[in-house]
Amino acid sequence: MAFEYGSDTLGIKNPFKFEGLILTIRGVIVTLLGIVALLAVKDLVAQGAKEAGWLSLAIGLILLGNGVVAVGVGLFKVMRFFVGRGVPASLARNMAKSESHVRESYIAYNDKELEQMLMGRKNLTFVEPQGWLARLIHTLMPRLLFTPYPIRTTAQQLSSGLIYSILAFLCYGLAWFSGSTGLTQINDTPVLDWLSVILAVFLFLLWAGKRSPLKRVAQVSVESASTKGIVMMVAFSILSPVGLSYVHHEVFRLPELPLSASAYIITMTVLGLLAAAYGLLLTYLRATQAEPKTEVSEFRNNWQESIHPQEIFINFENIVMANRRYKEIPNRVYRDFDANLVEQGSNDKGKFSGEMIQETQPVYREVPMIPIFKSLRIVGTIAGELLLVIAAIMFYQAIEPVTLIKTAPIAALDALIYPALIWIFGRIISNTAHIFWAEMHFESLIVLFQCNGTYSESKVSTGASIHDSTRSENVVVRSSMTPWIITSRIVTSCFAESGSNNLEFYRRILEMHKADDDLDKITSEMKTFLGNRETIAGVNAKDLDSASAIYQVNQETRSLNAQAALTRDGKTELSPERIEGHMETDSKNRDITSGINDDGLDIQGR
Asked: How would you class 333 by CB atoms within 10 Å of its CB: exposed for 0-12, middle for 13-18, buried for 19 or more?
């Protein structure tokens, strides 16, 4: 959606300024490290250390690229947060004529689902968890169900990393137990050392897959977990020592490992516990503030009014709902009205039905949180970016140990593996914090209006007397209708991003609250509209004044004519002045026949 400027802004501030500042600082530090590594290439080559020079060049380019990207992304987050009058995304397809040119990509519901939620007093956003892992997490944290999808998925990812790590240790212990009890012949063999390497590789791949929760910002559902992984892990833990023992004794002897993977395992375990604890604590604090109500306000009645059914819907859309616009922004129309008139047997009676669903412009509101939640967001952002800086520094310092890989291979491996581990968990913590920076809440009024009934037509005539000079004939439509109005104050959640689509991802309903005051005002306005209608075409005040003036002139004219007739019959002679006045009166009367002029009004005054 293109940016739509309006002088009356929505008052939404940039939520990523602090995060962008910390990211920019990290980018500057990493960029400087990359520049230093590149500047050292010339000296290393001059000293004859070409291998170190090439390595310094490669590491410098990696650090420089990562740092420049971080600076760019950080500055982008700090810059102006463009918010047009068309944000956030609609709940369903917006059918308003003023927004017909807009094509929204992220639509969370359709009009039938919104009707189902309002009618059934239920929230389709909260789906049942799928898989044993999701059910376990939701059992331990019941209110997790009422958090948005990105938060739920992040919690499940961190929990799955923690649980699968524990299972991996249990499987390793099971393998060790089978060897110590003599079930498998692994005594005096390097089988356990190889199993520890396998465990370390498994943990590395497991947590490396959790480093990008940002991709779930625009997700549609929550990821599920099955029992297949558990079964495979248990089977592998039982069969792997048997297989390695068989290979060692029957195929070829497994070589002794020059290094132990225990230090890597301990590092990943500690960092994994910290990352999971941080994310789950934030999720728990956010879930405690959830208020998953599904309440609505409802009005049902039966009215009998002299009104055409089409006018009911036109008034409701163009007057009643238009009065509820926020900052003159058009409402979101999710179901447009159609009176659907059906004639029954003749042209003067029939039935009608119609409905519409509208949402007022969502108004930004702060996400409910406690002080410790705000502090944890800041701490997580700083800690995550600090770990990334430490990983960059360690990667820069790996130039010398890697050049000595032939003489000290273990030191060279450590110099490369530890920065990778720290970088993975720094990314996990930083991205987890970003999820909670990105959440934004909006409040709006959603209205479902349905009206069904019958109508009949009849003619009404007024002014049909022989003495009446004005006549009005009207076709009166009598409608018997049953309006059904449901209103709800909804709280919706959207996850923002920096860029052109900053507030245009899926927006979902989290809370539904009663809207009794809004419903009372809506019904009052409709009753006022119906009560002030005129069934018969009448005469307004100006017409009555004109008719009164004509009546007075006609009365004066008839009086003069009667006096003239009496004078002629009695042969009364008129003076020249009376004759002249009579002629003037006649002239004025002729002028009045086509309308009321100033002279006519003067006669009335006389």
From this structure: buried
